[in-house]
Design goal:
218 residues, alpha/beta, 8-stranded mixed sheet, 4 helices, 8 strands
């Protein structure tokens, strides 16, 4: 989730988002790494959005904060569209990170998924601002996968876990480190359709779910 800010003087459309993490595995370094990955990957296309017949430079401005023992009511009662809350733990049911739907501001990260270059944070952010996984998950012959392709996608050999593996066999699916945000991902956001009030609009929606530690639910 984020807040879009339209600046008609500077000609910019800025998506503001803050990632607040909590839980036993949450650290300030991880919070900063999440914010950095999202900002760098989503700004990479250097996209322009046309609104009212005028092009605007699209920017993503992100920040991260760590509050390990955050009060659940801080999450549940949040009314700031820039704030996203994620629990970070070493264990997650299902063995994978997730968010609470398409267009949301909460979720749960498995620490193992957050290594440098994993693209997990950038992928999950895409869900929070409304993007789903693509329908076609066999993209052999189509080059580098976009950011919203999930684990298990069939890709060209250079983008597999093991470039020598047969498609679909162990090692023969997409390594998430190869995902990139492309212009198609930006177009899919439909930012030109946002309803601005005083130059601002909400991207995504409030879910405000505070997550329990899954370790206690085994």
């Amino acid at each position: 989730m984020g807040e879009a800010e339209l600046d008609t003087v500077k000609g910019t459309l800025t998506i503001h988002a803050e990632f607040i993490i909590y839980g036993h595995a949450a650290t300030s370094e991880i919070a900063e790494a999440i914010a950095d990955e999202v900002r760098e990957m989503w700004n990479a296309p250097r996209a322009q959005i046309t609104i009212g017949g005028r092009p605007y430079e699209l920017r993503f401005m992100t920040s991260g904060a760590c509050i390990p023992d955050i009060d659940p009511m801080t999450v549940i009662s949040n009314v700031d569209p820039r704030k996203n809350f994620f629990r970070v733990e070493t264990f997650a049911i299902g063995n994978i990170s997730f968010v609470d739907g398409l267009g949301c501001n909460t979720g749960y990260f498995k620490l193992e998924n957050l290594y440098k270059g994993s693209t997990t944070a950038a992928h999950e952010f895409g869900h929070t601002i409304g993007l789903n996984h693509p329908v076609e998950l066999d993209i052999r012959g189509k080059g580098q996968p976009g950011i919203m392709y999930p684990r298990g996608t069939w890709v060209d050999p250079p983008y597999q876990y093991d470039s020598t593996a047969q498609p679909g066999a162990p090692g023969g699916t997409m390594h998430p480190m190869h995902r990139r945000v492309n212009l198609e991902d930006i177009v899919a956001l439909s930012l030109s359709r946002l309803n601005f009030a005083d130059g601002k609009a909400i991207v995504g929606a409030f879910t405000n779910v505070w997550h329990e530690d899954h370790a206690g639910m085994q």
